[in-house]
Amino acid sequence: MEVITSYYSDPSFTVFKVPKWRAKLYKFLSVDLWGNIPSNLQRAISAWYSSFYNKPISKSIIEPYVRLNYSDKNYLEKFKPPHGKNDFECFQDFFIREFKTLPKIDSPYVWPCEGLLCDEDHIDNLRLVSIKSDIRTVAAVFGVDDKQIPKDYTFTNVFLHNKNYHRIHAPIDGTITRIQHVPGDLVVLRPWIYKENPSLPAFRNERYNIDIVDGNGKTWYLSIVGGPAVGTIKLAKGISEGNKVVKLQELSLFYLGSTCCMAAPVPPKHHTKNTFVEVGIPY
User: For 89-148, how does the pLDDT look when each residue is reduced to its tens digit (9 = 90+)?
Assistant: First the structure.
């Protein structure tokens, strides 16, 4: 029996040992069964079962969840409740927690999010993906023409585990030139069940695409992808076409479930596929 051992959620996690047969079963359930339910019904079901995390009783989950997932007993000290609250009133508040102070990094390029770098390659090397008999290239993730993204750009996909910080920040200083909402499905995002193509959900799920042009005139393409249990992908205040952003300015947040894809003019210098990245560390 083949065991998938290449995917980690973060440095404190053990390897996800998913037998090949089980990964295939999960993919079948996610893509062939759940994925064939109409998208509007997927969203309705997701909103229904994720509503528990907005209830006050779900606050009781936070402490054991942090204790289970973090070795650092003071982990929450660097975060604060969202929306100016004085306390985490429900699990959703923990999920969309805010930094008390953003990281201070001198690098011109930083990672926009926290999670597992589950895919990383030159655009030209990425496989075509068949979605409901429609053959798509990686440009489809970002909602642009196949020839718009240069072949020497690098594609990255960061999977945000439920425990990870779920806000997306600008990787560079620049100007927003396009914002696009792409309706779609909400199939499961976990990359270890898509061994042949861990980015498959990004090709078909609901997402927001944001293009940012840097000081060198190069476009950075970001795709903020939702998954099951996503109630909302919410853009931050001031994020609109034509506006300037500064490095680490907040772009959006997820209300449960997410992946962040990026097509960049430079490859990451410090990370490779299956490594863990954090908000604000050098790209």
Answer: 999 899 899 999 988 888 999 999 998 899 999 988 887 676 666 678 899 999 999 889
Number of domains in the chain: 1
14 contacts: CB under 8 Å, gap ≥ 6: none
Instruction: Report the C-alpha dihedral over residues 110, 116, 122, 126, rounded to 10 degrees.
Output: -150
Output the six-digit token pair for 211: 């293009």
Whether 252 is in a domain gets the answer: yes
Report d(CA 166, CA 247) in Å as an integer: 17
pTM across the whole model: 0.89
Burial of 86 (0-12, 13-18, 19+ CB in 10 A): exposed
- Give just the sign of the alpha carbon dihedral 234, 276, 80, 68: positive
**Does 282 fall in a domain?**
no
Residue 273 in any domain: the answer is yes
229-264 pLDDT, tens digit per residue, is 665 678 899 999 999 999 999 999 877 668 899 999
Render the burial of 137-152: b for 16+ CB within 10 Å, e for the rest.
bbbbbbbbeeeebeee
**Residue the block writes with tokens 């490779």:** 272
Note whether residue 283 is domain-resident: no
Cβ contacts of 236 within 8 Å, gap of 6 or more: 249, 250, 251, 252, 253
Domain encompassing residue 163? 3-277
